[in-house]
């Protein structure tokens, strides 16, 4: 495939980064410690969303009070657990992703990451990987869920990434992620290309249920998909 793409917007955990399932573990444990049951189906539904919103809805779905105090306590516990898990097993780029990001930028495609993490979680994570924005970094923008009015499936993080990179036409934007809300946000934004990547819990068959969404095995395949590799 050959098309004109000016900006590629990628999710972080499960899409560009292998964090060994620790986000799932931390989110589930932080809610279950209140005595709330978290089903696999509900957990998958809310993965990729703003984590405060995810906690609030998982509490409600489990029949527990989702008052502001309980949600805040669970979120603090989520961050503590995630810090503990990441210290034990640091996240790392998924195979071929660092090279793919570099190849996109060499071909004039700007690269942005969006995430359901808040800024205080995403910042240290990216620093630990040595990933940064700017001319000397390997990214053009990072947008966190606490920087917009609402996270996925709303398109606001994608739109903020466009704003930060000076991208005018949403039809020249590619959006890729490993969860349902990633592709839903991409579709809501009107992005020219919306891709599911199969490095998370969803398969090509799962992504085929979303109108207009295509799928690839990995972000590493995107330069070839765009015709940037022979």
From TrEMBL:
It comes from the Bacteria. GO terms for molecular function: phosphoglycolate phosphatase activity. GO terms for cellular component: cytosol. Coiled coil: none annotated. One of its GO terms (biological process) is DNA repair. This is Phosphonoacetaldehyde hydrolase. PANTHER family: PHOSPHOGLYCOLATE PHOSPHATASE, PHOSPHONOACETALDEHYDE HYDROLASE. Keywords: Hydrolase.
């Amino acid at each position: 495939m050959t098309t004109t793409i000016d900006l590629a917007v990628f999710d972080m955990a499960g899409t560009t980064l292998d964090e060994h399932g620790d986000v799932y573990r931390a989110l589930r444990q932080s809610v279950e410690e209140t005595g709330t049951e978290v089903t696999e189906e509900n957990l998958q539904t809310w993965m990729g969303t703003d984590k405060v919103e995810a906690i609030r809805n998982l509490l409600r779905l489990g029949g527990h009070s989702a008052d502001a105090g309980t949600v805040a306590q669970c979120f603090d516990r989520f961050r503590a657990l995630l810090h503990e898990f990441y210290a034990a097993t640091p996240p790392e780029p998924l195979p071929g992703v660092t090279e793919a990001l570099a190849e996109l930028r060499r071909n004039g495609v700007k690269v942005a990451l969006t995430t359901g993490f808040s800024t205080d979680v995403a910042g240290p994570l990216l620093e630990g990987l040595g990933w940064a924005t700017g001319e000397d970094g390997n990214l053009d923008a990072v947008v966190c869920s606490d920087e917009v009015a609402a996270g996925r499936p709303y398109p606001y993080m994608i739109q903020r990434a466009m704003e930060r990179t000076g991208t005018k036409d949403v039809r020249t934007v590619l959006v890729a992620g490993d969860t349902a809300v990633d592709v839903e946000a991409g579709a809501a934004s009107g992005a020219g290309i919306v891709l599911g990547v199969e490095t998370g819990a969803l398969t090509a068959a799962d992504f085929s249920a979303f109108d207009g969404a295509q799928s690839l095995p990995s972000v590493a395949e995107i330069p070839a998909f765009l015709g940037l590799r022979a």
